[in-house]
Design a protein that fits this description.
alpha+beta; two-stranded antiparallel sheet
């Protein structure tokens, strides 16, 4: 790995310590979800792909496009962590998460977006 790439990776890793996780209480699920207030490029890409393509959900033979809900579900998937910073969900659980209460998913996703800061902005503070 090049020196430049190592430095770039270390810069971002500085924003990803467990001490910097933010907690969201989810009483409906009887748990807390943690997340970092800034996204990696890969996380941002996954969320944007879900928003642009929409989520296709088969339900009794009918196909529904759920752009907003798909984006919110993907945001919850790629950002939700436990207290140590380990992922709670993976992308293969996308359809299953779409089957959960959309109001809870929207609230979690909204709280995550409200706290978003880019690594560049965080470094200025």
């Amino acid at each position: 790995m090049s020196d430049a790439l190592l430095k770039a990776r270390q810069h971002f890793a500085n924003f990803r310590s467990p001490e910097q996780l933010i907690e969201i209480k989810v009483p409906e699920w009887e748990m807390s979800i943690f997340y970092w207030p800034h996204l990696s490029a890969g996380e941002r890409r996954s969320i944007n792909i879900a928003a642009q393509a929409g989520a296709k959900l088969e339900d009794d033979g009918a196909r529904m496009i759920m752009d907003r809900h798909g984006r919110e579900a993907m945001e919850v998937i790629v950002r939700s962590r436990d207290v140590r910073g380990d992922l709670l969900f993976n992308e293969s659980q996308f359809q299953a998460l779409l089957g959960c209460d959309p109001d809870v998913i929207a609230r979690i996703s909204g709280e995550m977006r409200d706290q978003y800061t880019s690594p560049e902005d965080a470094a200025k503070n």
